[in-house]
Amino acid sequence: MFALPLTEEVELRPLDPWLAEEFLANLDRAREHIQPWVSPTFVATDLPSARAVLQRYADRWASDSGGIWGLWWRGTLVGGVMLVSFDVTRGVCEVGCWVEPAAEGKGMVAPAVRRIVDWAVRERGIQRVEWRTNADNTRSKALARRLGLRLDGTLRQVIPGQHGRIDLEVWSVLADEWLAGASGSPTTVH
């Protein structure tokens, strides 16, 4: 197993199915906080559903169509980043993230997203990286801006929600834009 240090207190690690208990504990701490912003299929409520979420991402990694990594802060899983979709043939991927309230504002999500985007662009030849977010999620949109993504547009009322249909914003960065603005060297993701 690898652990990629992001700061002195934060590591990026693979989030494999055998870590379902730890993942479920993280979701239990984060559930109310992230539920409005993530797919209902992601917010597992018991051990079998937590294992199923991680297995879906493990299967995506094995089929070269996605992946998931956890953020451990002081040894505790507090969130993570993922390649929601990954299509080398089309040269397009979608990145996403989640974090529990206690880990917000600690500066760990942006470096983790940068790592997987840099890897996707430099190592795998991805040409377009997308970030899709609920139009009301101001923190997510601020992170997209900090990462250098641009707002492509809004898909109006595209997702059913508890209180009506939800607008989804699509942000993106193209490979040449990323490489022109990215700092650091190529990154390894396992």
UniProtKB/TrEMBL annotation:
Xref: SUPFAM superfamilies: Acyl-CoA N-acyltransferases (Nat)
Its domain of life?
Bacteria
Matching InterPro entries: Acyl_CoA_acyltransferase, GNAT_dom, Ribosomal_N-acetyltransferase
- According to UniProt, the name of this protein is GNAT family N-acetyltransferase
Which Pfam families does its entry note?
Acetyltransf_3 (PF13302)
Task: Give start and end of each N-acetyltransferase domain.
Answer: 10-177
